[in-house]
Design a protein that fits this description.
By secondary structure, the protein is an alpha/beta fold. 32% of the residues lie in helices and 26% in strands.
């Protein structure tokens, strides 16, 4: 991404400042597009269920990690219904504090709330069946994304899965100065995944999102 995030410190601190001002609500998590939450969750559930099971080569349902979890929107509606235990990681403490009440009774099945930026987060080796990374890779520089994915690979259980679900640009890297992030095209994302030593085992475009927002693609990695 060249000079887009040349000043890494301000790239990260500006993003932290942005999210600190965002209300801890579903609408806040989705940048004013709270109405798409159900469409998003249903698409993710159908995607994930292709892999989950008890058989040979299938992904287990013991423990999942929600990266850039915010208040736990995805944990509550996608991950906790499918996994026995879920961990949340997010850079904004206020969001994780809100998650404890937002998740309701199911909060008792949360293993850990990690307050940390993904560029610094080291997931526990061999802990997770699924690591879900949605709408957050744009907050990492290329090198940090590659390094984070390598750490995630080590954190997987046998037949585990890393899932990236994110906006993709039509071409190249598009910076967003408002929230201090970038949007990459699909070829760039695939190339970074390859650099991390992972391969894309399945890929889908999310359907039925508003026309005015970026295309959203979901990639399963191993």
């Amino acid at each position: 991404m060249g000079d887009v995030a040349e000043d890494k410190a301000s790239f990260y601190s500006n993003a932290e400042d942005y999210w600190r001002e965002v209300p801890p609500t579903v609408d806040g998590m989705l940048g004013g597009y709270g109405s798409i939450s159900s469409i998003d969750i249903n698409g993710s559930k159908a995607f994930l269920k292709k892999f989950l099971g008890e058989g040979e080569g299938e992904t287990g349902t013991g423990c999942a990690l929600d990266c850039g979890a915010g208040i736990g929107r995805i944990t509550k509606r996608l991950l906790l219904p499918l996994f026995r235990t879920v961990d949340l990681v997010d850079v904004t403490k206020e969001f994780l504090d809100k998650a404890r009440t937002y998740l309701g009774d199911d909060a008792k099945r949360v293993g850990n709330y990690f307050c940390c930026g993904l560029q610094e987060f080291v997931p526990e080796t061999g802990r997770y069946d699924v690591i879900w990374i949605q709408w957050v890779i744009g907050h990492l520089t290329d090198d940090h994304l590659v390094e984070f994915l390598r750490r995630c690979q080590k954190a997987l259980r046998p037949d585990g899965l890393i899932v990236i679900k994110d906006n993709v640009s039509y071409e190249g890297v598009v910076p967003d100065d408002v929230d201090s992030s970038v949007c990459r095209d699909l070829d760039i994302v695939r190339r970074l995944v390859g650099r991390a030593g992972l391969r894309v085992v399945h890929e889908e475009q999310q359907k039925n999102f508003p026309k005015e927002i970026y295309q959203v693609h979901t990639l399963a990695l191993r």
